[in-house]
Amino acid sequence: MNTNSHLEKVFNSGEFVVSAEIGPPKHASAEGMHHYADVLRDYVDAANITDNQTAVVRISSIAGGVHLNNKNVCPIIQMTCRDRNRIAMQADLLGAYSLGINTILCLSGDHQIFGNHPTSKNVYDIDSMHLIQTVRKMRDEKQFMCGEEIKNQEPRFFVGAVANPFGDPFEFRVDRLEKKVEAGAEFIQTQCIFDMERFERYMEEVCRRGIDERVHIMAGITPLKSWKAARYIGNNVGGMIVPDEIVERLKGAEDQKAEGLNIAVEQINHVKKIKGVHGVHIMAIAWEEKVPEIVERCGLYPRPKFD
Amino acid sequence: MDNFEPKIVAFCCHYSAYSADLAGSMRLQYPPNVRIIELPCSGTIDHKVLLSAVEDGADGIFVAGCMEGDCHFTRGNYRAKKRVEKVKEILDEIGFGSDRLEMYNVSADNGTRFAEIANEMTERIRSLGPSPFNKKEGDKN
Amino acid sequence: MIVAEQKPIKTIADLIEDSNKVLLVGCSACVAVCLAGGEKETEVLASALRIKRKQEGKPLETVTKMVTRQCDPEYIATLDDSVEDVDTIISLGCGVGVQYLAERFYNKWVIPALDTKFAGGSIEHGQWEERCGLCGDCILHRTGGICPIIRCSKSLLNGPCGGSQDGKCEINKDVPCAWHLIYERMKSLGKLDKLLEIQPPKDWSRSRDGGPRKVTREDVFID
Fold this sequence. Notes:
The complex is a heterotrimer of chains A (307), B (141) and C (223).
Chain A: H1 6-13, E1 17-22, H2 31-40, E2 46-49, H3 61-70, E3 75-80, H4 86-98, E4 103-107, H5 128-140, E5 158-163, H6 170-183, E6 187-192, H7 196-208, E7 216-221, H8 227-236, H9 244-252, H10 256-271, E8 277-282, H11 291-297
Parallel strand pairs in A: 1-2, 1-8, 2-3, 3-4, 4-5, 5-6, 6-7, 7-8
Helix pairs in contact in A: 8-9, 9-10
Chain B: E1 8-13, H1 14-25, E2 34-39, H2 47-55, E3 60-65, H3 76-93, E4 101-105, H4 111-128, H5 135-140
Parallel strand pairs in B: 1-2, 1-3, 3-4
Helix pairs in contact in B: 1-4
Chain C: E1 2-6, H1 9-15, E2 21-27, H2 30-33, H3 39-55, E3 61-67, H4 73-76, E4 88-91, H5 95-104, E5 109-112, E6 114-124, E7 127-132, H6 148-151, E8 168-169, E9 172-176, H7 178-188
Parallel strand pairs in C: 2-3, 2-4, 4-5
Antiparallel strand pairs in C: 1-6, 6-7, 8-9
């Protein structure tokens, strides 16, 4: 064990891991987050707290992480490179750890053009690869990015990163994953998987190169509420593929929401059998209430407990 | 105002100017208000020249080029069209309005069409009244 | 070249509202090439401003001048005789030109007629595109001759990010993904292995931070 992260413990136990995602609110009340923490607590091993997702201002991921900790849910704080330079990011790493947060997900972040402040300036002082390296360097070498020693308690984070098997160029996606593992990522959450065939091709290459031995990969699953949502995601979100058969299946269903959950359950049961997949990350966008049902139906309940 | 005779400057390419000649030799009636400035090709018209005509008091201005697809220099008339559009934009932006400026296409053997254009433009300008920069007419106002 | 674009005429007119006589200074360098501040654009702007003001009953007197380069003091000096009786100087140069005019004619009100956009080149007649981020530390030898600093919307050094699809950037389907281009070029050069190396964080101290940057060549100093 490198850290006190509950997520790391579950991975080490060999259990199939389950995480979910909570988007913090666009106001200063933590009530909703507390509610979702209660909903998810017994059904997931950890929950992501997004970092101003889609570049919309929200409660910060670190503050959200503290709220989750208070509710006994292991928070995975997301940290993007969009809004902070290397000074602010390292300061926040120190601060987050001092507040009891020990699991992090490093990512580039959505471009600000998608958010509610499209006239803002993005930072991108460093990229996600450098952020992974920095978190590891602070933990393993007790050094800041610049090489200066951390003289007292170093922040000890279990480090995650993201991968998108559906972005292009497809041939480079496994290379980029390998670079992130090389940089120090210990677990990976993938973009939402709808095109299972492409994901399987991706995982075959991952396993052929032995990358699955070096990192825990969690398959990203999103239950869809309607065929329109499915089509919208496929057509309008960069790096997302939604095959027609999913759109058609939802369209033909009597109860689209129920069918969306059925599809998610089938997808999870499918990825459980794919070599190299060690967990599932359920991104139920504005549908967090349904996570317990999905987890139960997939036979992933109860979740392991450790002392 | 009733006896307002607009001054209209027509920048005509060599070939459309020929249609003006033809209109004359066909004894077609068109108002004497149109003063023709012959260009080798409508594509040689320039933003600056059009604005100068406005500043110097022309009540109306038009550029006449060959029919689209028939320019003797291949694409000169398309370029003229884009420049006229741009100058119309500028005139709108500065509050002068773009109605006093127009682009026409006419073929060298169509004297009738030239006479029509000249009449059409004269009528339009007559209804707009004199340009605020028309020194003589402006003085009357 | 430095690529610029003229501000709306109304904006410029508002900036000189109180002036009766203005000097418009064009520049024959970059901004002439990108058709923003050359001789013709200077004349057209002057004419448009005059027409606007005349209609409003407050005629504007204009003087137009061209200089070879507004970014060289010796050329700016050629304007010395033209500035005395004008209220305002309108520069149709890039941001450098505006500042050189303001420095030389310290007691004159100098305003920009252009928005200076980027360092780029023409992609077709009448269209220009950004190519260089002026970061001060060129890495094009590592990225297949394609600049990720300015052409990637996130300036990633280890792209492409997850938003790249069908060769396009997530921000807009009309924007090519720079890292996709880099990948394709490196592939065609047989150098994909170079992309597996993690590119180190950038030293931004060589970029815009720390006051204006200077380049010095002492061997060509005259005195």
